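I'll show a record.
***
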Amino acid sequence: MCETGDQDQEECGRPGEDRGPADPQAQFSSLLEDSAEDLYEHAPCGYLSTLLDGRIAKVNATLLDWLGYERDDLVGAKHFSDLLTVGGRLYHETHFAPLLQMQGEIRGIALELKAADGSRLPVMVTSMVKTGSAGQPLLIRTTVFDARERRAYETELLRARNEADQERDRLKLLNTTLQKTLLPPALANVPGLDVSAYYHIASADEVGGDFYDLFPLATGTWGLFLGDVCGKGAAAAAVTSLARYTLRAAAVYDPDPAAVLINLNTVLNHEYNGDDPRFCTVVFGLLTPDHDRGGFRVTLASGGHPPALLMRADGSADFLDTPGGQLIGVLPDVHIAITTVHLAPGDTLLLHTDGLTEAHTPTGGEDRYGDDALLDFGRDLAPATASDTIGAVRDLLDTFGTGIDDDVAVLAVHVPRPTSEEQQ
């Protein structure tokens, strides 16, 4: 109690004067004194209690605000299923309610509630059965979470995914179309020769760098080539296109196989000698009929390319080694390896890119198919026509499954035996 006097008046303060802020701890404590009813009514989620038959017995203000209903519109007047859309009501009857009855609880179910104005509210619903002391079910308590932001996020995510899928499909179509332009629409028809080719794409998402062709030159002479550009994608496709057309043009100018590859090396080394060097491996062949012995004379020039596989009519097979051939496009002056072979009736010559021998075997791990296995493959297959050879290679590639890391191009040329010999 304050005594009279000036000093006491100053210390005690005047009646009704603001004594300053209350104790912060006291203020915080007062915030925690909300009633349980207030916490229920204004919770950040909707609360709903129904009888066992689904009739609404209690609903909080939060859910009423979301849906735009008055309390009397729902309590005792509607069932929970009345708030659902047609699809939601069907799901409630066939899945939600039976599961809740069996399990006594069901969580995180996505539904849509109908608001008073006819709009839809996407929600996540969790319900559980409240039981009495004897375990008998009494009522159903349901918690409702507003899922509008989540639905908007999911919708945007789905839209972005659909756009990405469409873009991926367009890219695959573009890659497929571009890949086709880098390969000949058809191989030239060489009298007295059976030819076949196949291109296996390792990934539809990227354009490969393998290429091949067989085309006429001077009368009675044909050129063929098969190569592999380093890398993938648009940059590799540009080099592939340049290599293909340079080889054909160079062969017309000077069909000597070594001269053709030297010409290609000059072009690639000149175009790609900067910060992004590009190179390739190539084998170029010149085919001429051998009128004296029958069959064909084949001269092959190799620039760092895997050796061709020769399968003889007698069932033997071996590689045509072209040692010392250097990669095309790396050095200004390149060494080209050359070999000449006679392709007799019944013989088959198989050209391939290294995607075949470097494929992972079906056993898994880091094991590669390898040159030795390819040589055994040829010895088991010989003698064989060009189409049979390519068919066998395709079957072989199928056994690798996802073990093929790189594209594979194969080109087979076969000298058919005379009809009289084939019938014997």
